[in-house]
Design a protein that fits this description.
Helices cover 9% and strands 51% of the residues. It has 1 helix and 12 strands; from the N terminus they run H-E-E-E-E-E-E-E-E-E-E-E-E. The longest helix is centred in the N-terminal third of the chain and has 19 residues. It is elongated and about 55 Å long.
């Protein structure tokens, strides 16, 4: 059930004092996505995700994608699944991030866009991540930095997986697709940014001995 807040008439003191604060609170609630969920921040690097009618809270990190698009702050989907056989069921989140960097000066001109989508499996009892599986990533840039090598880099790269998880918590990452096309001012330097390398290999991952391990 959604939380409803009702104030007095427009002449009430509560309305006059808290009207602007309430508007900002409502915006943050919308950014947290679905009814029964909310999202707040404690710093530039973390969010608190509150769900299950306020009974569960997770502190989520914020990957650096530059200036983030606000519509993608909170998890878009989640489900519960017993994986480690202890305590409460684990929670599986899908989170998406999109952002850009635009920095311009006399000796540099930086324009970058990044999109990242990933699944996260969390142990609610210990507040720890059991697995982070980026399944889609794209990056494009047109950069000039006079004091860097190479000075000029332009292009794009991306990768994508199919993600699935069964009722036992076994994760499969299949059908990896990658693309990369960069042009640099000096061919002796690598044009590929490190984030375009998938952090997990294609295959099956099973929770064993307290952690996820690749089994094939």
């Amino acid at each position: 059930m959604c939380l409803r807040i009702q104030l007095g008439g427009t002449n009430s003191a509560l309305y006059r004092v808290n009207y602007k604060l309430l508007l900002w609170w409502m915006v943050l609630m919308q950014l947290g996505s679905l009814c029964g969920q909310s999202l707040s921040n404690d710093s530039l690097h973390h969010d608190f995700f509150v769900f299950n009618q306020g009974q569960d809270t997770l502190q989520l990190d914020r990957p650096d994608v530059g200036i983030r698009m606000p519509a993608l702050y909170g998890p878009s989907t989640f489900r519960y699944l017993e994986i480690n056989g202890q305590g409460r069921p684990e929670v599986i989140l899908y989170r998406a991030f999109s952002g850009f960097k635009a920095q311009h000066g006399g000796s540099f001109d930086i324009s970058e866009r990044t999109h990242l989508g990933r699944y996260e499996i969390w142990d609610l009892d210990t507040q720890t991540q059991l697995l982070v599986a980026p399944t889609i990533y794209s990056f494009d840039c047109a950069n000039f930095i006079a004091y860097a090598q190479p000075q000029y880099r332009r292009g794009a790269c991306s990768y994508h997986y199919d993600f699935s998880i069964d009722e036992l918590g076994t994760v499969e990452l299949r059908e990896l697709a990658q693309s990369q096309d960069f042009i640099c001012s000096d061919s002796t330097f690598s044009c590929s940014p490190a984030p375009c390398v998938p952090p997990l290999a294609e295959g099956r991952y099973r929770f064993m001995d307290g952690k996820y391990q690749q089994v094939d």
